[in-house]
Amino acid sequence: MTVNGAASREVTAANPAAGEAVGRVLGTQAASPLSFWVGLEPGKVLQLDDVVVTRRDVPGYGPVLVAGVVTTVEARHEGAAYDSDVFLIADGALPAAVVEVAEVRVTRVEPEVFVPPLPGSKVFLAGAGDRDLALYFDVMDRRIPLGLGRDGQPLYVNFDFLDGTRGAHVSISGVSGVATKTSFATFLLYSIFNSGVLDAESANTKALIFSVKGEDLLFLDHDNLRLDEKARAAYARLGLPAQPFGSVHVFAPPRPGDVNGVPNVSARTQGVSAFYWTLVEFCEEELLRFVFADADDERAGYSLLVGQVAARLKAWAEPVGDGGAVMVQGTGCRTFADLVELLSEQLQDEGSRLQWTGAQTPLGTVNAFLRRLRSAMKPLSPIVRGDLPFYRNHSVSTSDAQVSIVDLHNLPERAQRFVVGVVLRGEFHRKESAGTAKPLLFVVLDELNKYAPREGDSPIKEILLDVAERGRSLGVILIGAQQTASEVERRIVSNSAVRVAGRLDPAEAARSEYGWLPAAVRERATIAKPGTMFVAQPEIPVPLAVAFPFPAWATRPSEAAAPAGKVSEDPFKGLPGIEEDIPPF
């Protein structure tokens, strides 16, 4: 029976317009307008996520289509009374029949006459037209390919729920290293840029990706050497070209101790710029608050002192030279360490402390502030500079390319928080001043639970909340990823129109934050393979199980091919060959 079912499934996949009869609506289980059970005919097979349809003639309305998705499949012996009967039945000593049944969760009734399907009614695998109707693809004027379903056919998400028209933001959850959250986020971006939904805005729409996992994301504009014909066929079925991102620029921090500010990357040499902030910018833009970006800093009680000191630096710091150094009350500062030492001296001196704090501040609070500031000296010294030879372009910008990648993996966590907070604030303010939502800016941020934890407050969390609540109207779309949605600020997750889950930890899957996943899907998520995601969107009542194709772009340096049109030169060209230079040993 299984073999015949597999064969019939292959025929249906090859000819998706033909709906295949697979069974009948059961009469032993109650059918409702929201769910019903199907008894499978001999030789027929249904699996989870299959889309099926049945019809009923309703007096006064005509034919009513009831479509749904298979959520449970069961097989049992009909006629067996005891567990041990299975052996007798297998030996032919006890008559019994093998029965397979499937539960169907209704996704759409067309027209909307909510009556249950009648027992005995034929049930069909959905053909192309019925499938689109069952999953609301027929009403998606602007749809984005998400990947392939279990039937090998494309699945889509409505772009109206991504660009702010009817909703915005994406929340992706799953176990680190298994759920492929970052891979799915980059595929979603690729699909948006290449599906044609952006029309005239395609060239101006930007993406900003914060990379924290090695140099794996630095080669999005390189062909993937491991891409095979099967993956190319999947892209063709989705209507997407199998090629890398066309326009990518990488920003990386300077190498520690490097007097020229060379980007701290090893595998990529082209299209990479160093980013940092001069001491002038640090003082003028009051970036001190992002040095204290942990939730612990807010609970420590010195947040008011941080604001006071930042205001004094803005008022008193004067630029010196062309390298970004400053002069504060007659003392020159060329490095972040110089600035920290200056603040330590001023705040520890009773005569000058009041000038900096603006009010009587307990010495314990001042000392706690200074301890935290000194601990930031080493992490921030490479990216807060006043000692480089000239004041050159060093800002993270999304104007240089369609996809801008900010590489953070070489920075300590303290510095990563600083960079994320300052860059997000700058881009959000830029969009605010533009006064229009178009062109869109997509922001991909992994480890969202670290930057916007459920408990406590921080400057970064404030910005991310602003993005989640007002970003839709400003054209800033957050694609956030996290291992545990239960540890992320509720308002950020609740403002995400599209929710995605990959492989989930069983304890995490039981949390209320995954209430959008039916119980059966939650269990499946705990054993999901890499590349399988469960996607929920407002228009479709059930999450879709999506398998997105293997990336056409390099996901690690070893997969990267040379960019098109560029031939890598032999670094040993011109040196003596083996025969010409025989070693003397």
Automatic annotation (TrEMBL):
Keywords: ATP-binding, Nucleotide-binding. Residues 559-585 are annotated as: Disordered. GO terms for molecular function: ATP binding. This is ATP-binding protein.
